[in-house]
Specification:
Distance between the termini: 39 Å
Shape: globular
CATH superfamily of the largest domain: Spore Coat Polysaccharide Biosynthesis Protein SpsA, Chain A
Strand content: 15-25%
CATH class of the largest domain: Alpha Beta
Number of helices: 13
Helix content: 40-55%
Radius of gyration: 20 Å
Number of strands: 9
Order of helices and strands: EHEHEHEEHEEHEHHEHHHHHH
């Protein structure tokens, strides 16, 4: 059986320092039926030179101002010819062999609406590994609380994209999570235990610099798709900057203490170190807040 065509879209804007490595992580896999599209938003750095040096191996590329990351991805998929889709941001990487793994897992169901997700490695700009995040079993209730799917390790059939529809390009930070939630209503999700991608943590990475606007978008997403209890917890975090600031720090402290003590004692010590969580309003639970942090 012939390898299914895989379409990968890379949106980029002024990420020339990383873009070449991202593109090469896909091209160097030598996947025989690759349809690779690079959508640059009119970068003023070296991005165009980086793309031109590889343009003969690309299905399509362009560089001009656009309406943002989600719109660029939508435009790329509108041009795609593959049976399997995925997007890779211009500062992340695919693991060698990822496309072959994806093809092997999805070949038998390319006519179905299927989303495949795998494990992901987080790394620093200097190459050092921060964390290896294992893909966990799919859980709709959990997805309605937090986006536990690591986007660079997510792929889906064309049938899934056509059934779910395009990304919401009014969103800047949470459009992937919003799409996954829509997909959960009409698609089957497959878990892959292998590491499919590497997610780069650096000073300008979008998730880390989103601040209040990112929380506002996530709150809008849960308002659309999640139970009232989840919405209430996001509204609490929106109204409490100290709680937002402390949330991930408390989780990391708890992880540190749990390496020394038991999980229960370590978790309690992490909470003691985070004053906003000593006393919570009625209807707000620590367990839900810890889940919202996304740290596992």
């Amino acid at each position: 059986m012939a390898d299914p065509a895989i379409s990968i879209v890379t949106p980029s804007f002024n990420q020339g320092r990383y873009l070449g490595e991202t593109i090469d992580s896909i091209l160097d896999q030598a996947y025989p039926s690759l349809d690779y599209i690079v959508m640059d938003g009119g970068s003023a750095d070296q991005s165009v030179d980086v793309i031109r040096a590889r343009q003969e191996r690309l299905a399509f590329w362009r560089s001009h101002p656009d309406h943002g990351q989600a719109a660029a991805i939508n435009e790329g998929f509108a041009r795609a010819r593959g049976a399997i889709f995925g997007w890779l941001n211009s500062d992340d990487l695919h693991m060698n062999g990822t496309l072959h793994i994806v093809a092997d897992m999805l070949t038998g169901c390319v006519e179905e609406a299927v989303v495949l997700y795998g494990s992901c490695e987080l790394f620093r700009d200097n190459g050092s590994v921060i964390e290896r995040r294992s893909a966990v079993p799919f859980d709709l209730n959990r997805l309605q609380i937090t986006d536990f799917l690591d986007q660079p390790s997510v792929f889906f059939t064309r049938a899934a994209w056509e059934r779910v529809g395009p990304l919401d390009d009014s969103l800047h930070y949470a459009f992937d999570w919003e799409w996954f939630l829509r997909a959960s209503k009409v698609c089957r999700f497959l878990q892959c235990d292998k590491i499919l991608s590497r997610y780069r943590i650096h000073a300008q990475h979008k998730t880390g610099t989103g601040g209040l606007r990112r929380w506002e978008e996530m709150s809008e997403v849960v308002r659309r798709h999640s139970p009232e209890e989840v919405v209430r917890h996001y509204q609490y975090l929106l109204a409490c900057p100290d709680a937002r600031w402390w949330l991930n720090k408390r989780m990391r402290l708890a992880q540190l203490f749990q390496q020394i003590f038991s999980d229960t004692i370590g978790g309690a010590m992490g909470t003691v170190c985070a004053p906003p969580f000593w006393h919570l309003p009625e209807g707000i639970s620590r367990a839900m807040l810890w889940e919202i942090s996304g740290i596992r």
